[in-house]
Automatic annotation (TrEMBL):
Residues 17-37 are annotated as: Disordered. The keyword DNA-binding applies. Belongs to the transposase mutator family. Pfam families: Transposase_mut. One of its GO terms (molecular function) is transposase activity. Required for the transposition of the insertion element. This is Mutator family transposase. Signal peptide: none annotated. Keywords: DNA recombination, DNA-binding, Transposable element, Transposition.
């Protein structure tokens, strides 16, 4: 699931416009807000991944949507 988590990091980076730990994002109003656990259903069974969150709830991952299976 490391590949999936890396892809999700790419999505949040694209959404907020700066990379993880990049100081240019400070005070921008569109910031990262940690991660949350999500269980993804796969061919080998359920797997937990860490999904990044955006402050203000404006980030909705496209790779792992709510209620989706991979």
């Amino acid at each position: 699931m490391r590949l999936l988590e890396s892809a999700l990091e790419g999505e949040i980076t694209d959404h907020v416009g700066y990379g993880k730990r990049d100081i240019s994002g400070r005070g921008s109003g569109n910031s990262r807000s940690g991660t949350r656990a999500k269980t993804v259903l796969t061919d080998v069974g359920p797997v937990e991944v860490r999904v990044p969150r955006g402050a203000g709830g404006t980030f909705e991952p496209q790779i792992v949507r709510s209620g989706s299976a991979v």
